[in-house]
Write a structure and sequence with these properties.
This protein has 415 residues and is mainly α. It contains 13 helices and five strands. Helix content is 61%, strand content 4%. The strands form two sheets. A three-stranded antiparallel beta sheet has the order 3-4-5, with no helix packed on it. A two-stranded antiparallel ribbon has the order 1-2. It starts with 10 loop residues before the first helix and ends in a 7-residue tail after the last helix.
Length: 415
């Protein structure tokens, strides 16, 4: 959903164990290695007073090697943590020589049937993904800010519809900012271990990110509800109605976020709150988002049905290509406004086809704000007309040139 964190090394491990592990798989890998290292260091300490002849025990970052005499070949089974990749019964061997321990044979990744290139490949892939969505959110942030300023500065553009558009634009802006803040907090350094990181700033950035994402989904829902109400009736949207929409868009997400914070503080105050796999409390946030996406999709289908009826009241087969074009244009415009594309992975497991999912949710999703701003502000004829009129008035004030269009604009009342 917009706030997924980039997983680098050991992501293949995560995919293999997501169904059986209560911890985040990458973290389980790290924790198991740390546990085995501690046991090994404890064993080494116990053997300090033993014979100094031969090869001393040591930890090679993967396996613990015991004391051995010169000429002895020691075989160690593949570490249990490698079973997270796949089941294997391989072993690694070393010779104890007069110069000390020999190199392992076969190397760990060959003996245990683990591709040594997987971590580097995955790290490179996710670095690319991070670069793409950083560019996407940056461009969206700039364009959305300009769009909000246009809708706020021109008095004739102030109406209920644009008020709702502004709120949606603001959620896209906040989501972009939240992603940058979270990345800066969790991934400011390659040495940062987010499996053990647990600071107030870290948790605050995660909470802010979740709130912005949730508010964005609910304002997409508000857009759908508003357009449905316009098509179904001539209901006048008073300020009370706009207050209701504001409560739904900003207040409901705040309520669920507060409930989620309470559940994490009292029942699951672990790490940075960014690991949610197998957590029942994650549904406090995910549940409302899934429901909003499903409702949005139903409203989207209902609007398409209404548009078809309005374009062809007698429900006759389309004979006019312009009707096809109008319907197609309306449908394509509504997809980014309602977030209908989220239905693609809405009801699938979080790790279903992770590469494709991240490309859609992070890379393509980062440009959604840009697309919405362009379609519903910069390509809007009313906005273009008002900007054009302001440009003509500026020319009149600067050069004393009065355009006929500027004179006629005094009678225009687009809203």
């Amino acid at each position: 959903m917009g706030c997924l964190h980039v997983r680098g090394i050991f992501l293949a491990l995560s995919l293999a164990t997501m169904a059986s592990s209560s911890l985040h798989p990458e973290c389980e890998f790290i924790f198991q290695l740390e546990k085995e290292e501690q046991n090994c260091l404890k064993y080494i300490t116990e053997q300090e007073n033993s014979s100094t002849e031969g090869c001393p025990p040591f930890w090679d970052a993967v396996l613990c090697w015991p004391h051995a005499v010169v000429g002895e070949t020691v075989h160690r089974a593949c570490p249990a943590v490698f079973s997270l990749f796949k089941n294997n019964t391989g072993s690694v061997s070393r010779n104890c020589t007069a110069e000390g321990w020999s190199r392992p044979f076969l190397p760990h990744h060959i003996a245990c049937n683990v591709d040594a290139d997987i971590p580097e490949t995955e790290h490179s892939y996710f670095t690319t993904v991070k670069q793409i969505y950083t560019v996407g959110y940056s461009i969206s942030l700039i364009v959305l800010t300009v769009a909000v300023l246009i809708l706020l500065l021109f008095r004739r553009l102030r109406c209920a519809r644009n008020f709702i558009h502004i709120q949606l634009f603001v959620t896209f802006i906040l989501k972009s900012v939240a992603v940058f803040i979270k990345d800066a907090t969790l991934f400011s350094s390659d040495d940062t271990n987010h499996c053990t990181l647990s600071t107030f700033a870290c948790k605050a950035s995660v909470v802010f990110c979740h709130y912005c994402v949730m508010a964005n989904f609910f304002w997409l829902l508000v857009e759908a509800l508003y357009l449905n109400s316009l098509l179904l009736s001539s209901f006048y949207h008073s300020r009370r109605c706009l207050w209701g929409f504001s409560l739904l868009g900003w207040g409901v997400p705040a309520l669920f976020i507060i409930l989620w914070i309470g559940s994490r503080v009292y029942f699951e105050d672990t790490e940075c709150w960014d690991i949610n796999e197998d957590s029942p409390y994650w549904w406090i946030i995910k549940g409302p988002i899934v429901v909003s996406i499903a409702v949005n999709f139903m409203l989207f289908m209902n609007i398409i049905r209404i548009l078809i009826q309005k374009l062809n009241p007698r429900l006759i087969q389309f004979n006019n290509s312009s009707q096809y074009r109008r319907l197609t244009k309306s449908t394509l415009l509504l997809i980014p406004l309602f977030g209908t594309h989220y239905m693609l992975f809405n009801f699938l497991p979080d790790y279903f086809n992770i590469n494709l999912r991240l490309c859609i949710e992070l890379c393509m999703g980062s440009f959604q704000g840009l697309l919405v701003a362009v379609l519903y502000c910069f390509l809007n004829q009313e906005v273009q007309k008002e900007v054009h009129m302001q440009w003509l008035r500026w020319q009149e004030r600067s050069y004393g040139v009065v355009s006929p269009a500027a004179k006629g604009s005094q009678m225009d009342t687009p809203f």
